[in-house]
Specification:
By secondary structure, the protein is an alpha+beta fold. It has a domain of about 250 residues: Dipeptide-binding Protein, domain 3 (Roll), CATH 3.10.105. It is built from 20 helices and 26 strands. Strands 1-6-7-9-8 form a five-stranded antiparallel β-sheet, with helices on one face. Strands 20-19-21-15-22 form a five-stranded mixed β-sheet. Strands 3-12-11-10 form a four-stranded mixed β-sheet. Helix 9 runs antiparallel to helix 13. The chain is globular, with a radius of gyration of 26 Å. The N terminus is likely disordered.
């Protein structure tokens, strides 16, 4: 039989050899944890994660901010805008370690049973696992959750778990997922990330419809109160069944977590400085450079801090919707990138804080670099006829400038590419030879502060004769337009993990491009990309995963689906000085709010300062 995907055939052979030959049963392990590669860092019987402090004090309240609004308390469906923080009320089968690339430890599942070929996995539920109403979490709840999420939930779930052949409850506490023989070593792990919903609560309710009924969970917090679209408060569950498990020791320390909603980030900054909320993760460079000043910063009441991390930064960029005819020719997409002057933007608008992104896996060993080596060549060669020659012969770099603002050479190159596709510059406008229509499109934004960033880009496009209209909409409208792919261009971020896998289908697959609500924002429909995604998913070890991911990265870059923007490998945080945190931060996360806690002495000082400040202002 002629196999169109030689590497996939090789992967299948590798898995068959790993499983043994003949009728011999594969080795079956039963463990407290699953690691994607190698062995878990924490052995059975470990006490707590290194980045958590078991002696952390419990208590206090943390006030946080969210932007926009919400109209639903169901975070797992495509409709509605869910409230911030809803993940706090649900437990998953396993908990992820934040100081390993991809290792999961038992939470609702006490142990995990897995054969060497990973053709199935059995999760053994913890006998003490309980929902907030006191009813036990059962295998039937797990089966129900899997089915309803895959059938009625966000399209992410149907893509994420597409290879699961069957799920069954073996008894009250054991649930088995049949994963088939197709290479997909990650699948057993990502099933551990399944949020388990109470069947007795959801049966008889319309799961797919947004609802403001307070849902029932089993996690460390429950919804205490809310004002629709304006605020929501979570209260720590005092008798939380899993509070003493190793994965939870030293975590979930706040008695209350409260979110207030603000119209936009600028308003939120003023509210933060006024003491209306306690913690802010900043992603606007101008605000970071100029807004965090004043007496509370000078006297130590507010701490401004940059925390390094090793988190894969993914890709942020101007994303073309290739479903639109104007962007179907990749030479057009390549051309417009010459109008974005990152160097000038970084110097004049971002205070030099950012690094230009040149990968969909920035700040990671997964990023393509240089020309393809022998391993990558082996992955890419069978697809050569479908790929751009540059994939093999050139190192991708987005257009660059000297930062002076003079980009005439870039614009000349852009016009050369546009002329090749039938566009002509006449009387200050770019028009199409076929129908005479002008080159015009709309950039959809949800954050009004981003306008200052895109206005120079708009001006450079105008010099090419291209009209780019900027449209800013509210959060609810933006989400609806995004779900229906009703936009020409957006600014989006493709977040990545240290162990990419099944989620890549939702980002890039041809099938996902036609399903409303996926993260295939660009509308990528490329058989070569489809094959590379499957090879990433089927990679049998870390080395193969890195190789396949780099190959996928390279092909996406030369597809010109985005104009790459920037990234920073730091968390920029500001917080009122009422917290303490462990001396060791997690390598792949911030740790807030899970491992931080309210320090009573610090909290008293902050509260006294705020009272004095309000009295003096009044």
């Amino acid at each position: 039989m002629h196999n169109k995907c030689p590497l996939l055939a090789t992967l299948i052979i590798c898995w068959v050899l790993a499983a043994g030959t003949g009728a011999a049963e594969p080795t079956i392990s039963k463990s407290h944890a699953l690691a994607m590669n190698g062995v878990p860092k924490y052995a059975a019987g470990f006490d707590h994660f290194d980045y958590a402090q078991p002696q952390a004090s419990k208590g206090g309240k943390v006030n946080l901010a969210a932007i926009g609004t919400y109209d639903s308390l169901n975070p797992y469906i495509i409709k509605g805008v869910p409230a911030a923080g809803l993940g706090l009320i649900y437990d998953t089968l396993t908990a992820r370690s934040q100081d390993e690339p991809f290792t999961l430890y038992g939470l609702l599942a006490e142990t995990i049973e897995l054969p060497a070929d990973r053709s199935w996995v059995i999760y053994h539920l913890h006998p003490q696992a309980r929902f907030h109403d006191g009813k036990p979490v059962t295998a039937a709840d797990v089966v129900f959750s899997f089915n309803i999420l895959r059938e009625q939930g966000d399209p992410l779930y149907s893509k994420y778990w597409a290879d699961v052949e069957k799920v069954e409850a073996l008894d009250t506490r054991r649930v088995k997922f049949h994963l088939g023989q197709k290479p997909n070593p990650e699948l057993a792990l990502i099933l551990g990330e399944l949020p388990v919903l109470p069947r007795h609560f959801w049966e008889g309710r319309d799961f797919a419809k947004p609802s403001l009924t307070i849902p029932l969970g089993s996690g460390p917090y429950r919804v205490a109160s809310f004002a629709t679209g304006r605020s929501i408060t979570y209260r720590r569950v005092d008798d939380y069944w899993a509070k003493d498990l190793p994965v939870n020791k030293g975590q979930y320390n706040f008695d209350q977590i409260h979110y207030d909603y603000y119209r936009d980030p600028t308003v939120a900054i003023y509210a933060f400085k006024a003491g209306e909320f306690d913690f802010r993760l900043e992603n606007i460079s101008k605000a970071w450079a100029t807004a965090y000043t004043g007496p509370p910063f000078a006297n130590g009441m507010i701490i401004k801090e940059e925390i390094d991390n090793d988190v894969d930064q993914g890709m942020q960029g101007f994303v073309y919707n290739t479903r639109r005819s104007i962007f179907r020719d990749k030479r057009v997409r390549q051309a417009l990138a010459f109008a974005f002057d990152f160097e000038w933007t970084n110097k004049h608008l971002f205070y030099g804080q950012y690094t230009r992104s040149t990968s969909y896996f920035s700040n990671s060993e997964l990023a393509a670099s240089g020309l393809p080596g022998p391993d990558e060549q082996a992955v890419l060669e069978p697809l050569r006829a479908q790929l751009s020659p540059e994939v093999f012969t050139q190192v991708y770099q987005p257009p660059s400038t000297d930062g002076s603002g003079n980009i005439r050479a870039n614009l000349r190159r852009a016009l050369q590419l546009l002329k090749q596709t039938g566009w002509r510059f006449k009387a200050g406008r770019l028009t199409n030879d076929r129908d005479g229509k002008p080159f015009a499109f709309e950039l959809l934004l949800v954050d009004p502060t981003f306008e200052r960033v895109v206005l120079p880009f708009k001006q450079n496009l105008k010099r090419l004769g291209i009209e780019m209209e900027i449209r800013v909409v509210d959060t609810a409208q933006y989400i609806n337009l995004l779900r229906d792919y009703d936009y020409d261009m957006i600014v989006a971020t493709f977040g990545q993990s240290e162990s990419p896998g099944n989620e890549q289908r939702e980002f890039w697959s041809s099938e996902a491009a036609d399903i409303p609500g996926t993260r295939n924002y660009a509308g990528v429909k490329d058989p070569a990309v489809d094959q590379l995604v499957e090879q990433v998913i089927g990679a049998p070890d870390r080395k193969a995963l890195v190789t396949c991911t780099r190959a996928l990265d390279r092909v996406l870059l030369w597809g010109f689906y985005v104009i790459p923007q920037w990234h920073i490998a730091k968390y920029r945080v500001a917080y009122w000085n009422k917290f303490s945190r462990p001396s060791q931060s997690p390598r792949y996360g911030l740790g807030f709010p899970n491992t931080w806690w309210v320090d009573p002495a610090k909290d008293a000082k902050v509260n006294a300062y705020r009272r004095t400040k309000k009295t003096s202002e009044s």
